[in-house]
Amino acid sequence: MIEPQIVEPDAASETETAILEAARDLLAAGGREALSMRAVASKVGLSATAIYHWFEGKEALVDRVVLHGFRRSEAYMWKAIEDLPPGSMDRVAALGEAYIRFALENREYFKIIFAIQTPVPRHIDDVPGQGGYRVLRQCVIEAMEAENIRRTDPDVVVLYLWSVVHGLVTIFMACDPKDLLAETGCCDELDEEELTIGLFGRFRELVRVGLEPAAARGGGDDA
Amino acid sequence: MIEPQIVEPDAASETETAILEAARDLLAAGGREALSMRAVASKVGLSATAIYHWFEGKEALVDRVVLHGFRRSEAYMWKAIEDLPPGSMDRVAALGEAYIRFALENREYFKIIFAIQTPVPRHIDDVPGQGGYRVLRQCVIEAMEAENIRRTDPDVVVLYLWSVVHGLVTIFMACDPKDLLAETGCCDELDEEELTIGLFGRFRELVRVGLEPAAARGGGDDA
DNA sequence: GCGTTAGGTTAACACTGTTACATTAACGCC
DNA sequence: GGCGTTAATGTAACAGTGTTAACCTAACGC
């Protein structure tokens, strides 16, 4: 059994947390471009250069804000599965739904994490994967042991599941969902989040069947 | 049968195309932040303000570059399926692989398209979906008619397939794949693109089974 | 009391996108 | 030929950016 290991935020000075909060608000409101050192400074009541005493530069400041977002997302994931039976597909599905909900409710965090301004990909520990990835991985392994998912390379399955939800979220952040589903007609009067979750629900059946052990399908052609 | 409808690029002046090429190069080299009006100008041999005679501003310039990227991606997709039999799953898979290859070989285009700097999602016609989405949609419908995909809402299937490949690509652009697959060990000595394609190959089986018509699975529990 | 450090300041540099305005050349028109 | 108009470019400048250098001030250890 895995346990939530949420690292306590490093004990920070009042000024430091004030800067971080101001930065978070600016980031959430208008994205990376809206976060200027001078804007942060004036929110906190300091001069812009004072921030450099607490953070190496803008990049480092953004990184710290994002790191905080990771921790929140990790907690969000843990909460999503805590009441569900280990090894069940419900747990896997709940993680997917939590991922989507967190992404849509914390768009700016999410965008910045995957904005990929840096040409070099980050280390996994610096991405919401850290918490989320490992939780999902554990759930998948448990589901395999419970014969709810066919036995195969768990990393492949984890990345597959992650791709589905991550792809859905990022596509819907870039394109208007109602545009894509215009002909399906299932979308009016739903807000974006419910629409995305609804679509995720439709995906679940496709995913479940694909991951089913061969026994459940009456055949034996598993690889 | 659908035909490639690649819109000819609007006849542009020499200066205009020179600006666009310079902008494209800068964008590809260092992302949106590396594209400054002055840098573009000096590459073309003009003053920065001259660009404003051809483009409304930086945003418009970037948009035009991206638009050009869309057209290339559309052509890329068409080429990927032209020799494969309509209605086959091979066509669907080839589109997925083409999407991945194009994204990885044109990272900067791709990043910018999905960078989502604008808070409001774009219209579908302004996203690589335009070409790619419709091609994929048609291929899915044909595969349904050929009984290679279970009959259900095609838009759901299309978005599902798109999510899988798009998610995979964006995750691998943000995180180091070798990090994620460290324990699987299938990654050494492969470059990133081949690794991604290889993983996509592993996904295909999961996706194929999930989309199979009920008849092929020996059961009758389709919805 | 003195040195050191933490926490802050102002001034300045080298950039950025963008605008206002002036310039030059080419064209149609009478 | 001269005139007006327009296309295409230039210079100067503005307001904003991240960042650095240098300076100040209060608190602390010794």
Give an overview of the whole structure.
2 copies of one chain form a homodimer. With 223 residues, chain A is mainly α. Chain A is built from 9 helices and no strands. The first copy, chain A, has 2 domains: 11-55, Orthogonal Bundle (Arc Repressor Mutant, subunit A), CATH 1.10.10.60; 66-213, Tetracycline Repressor, domain 2. Chain A has helices at residues 14-34, 37-44, 58-81, 89-105, 107-115, 129-145, 154-174, 177-180, 192-211. In chain A, helix 7 runs antiparallel to helix 9. Chains A and B meet through helix 1, helix 5, helix 7, helix 8 and helix 9 of A and helix 1, helix 7, helix 8 and helix 9 of B. The structure holds a DNA duplex (30 and 30 nucleotides).
Which tags fit this structure?
2 domains; Arc Repressor Mutant, subunit A; DNA-binding; 223 residues; elongated; Tetracycline Repressor, domain 2; mainly alpha; 63% helix; 9 helices; homodimer
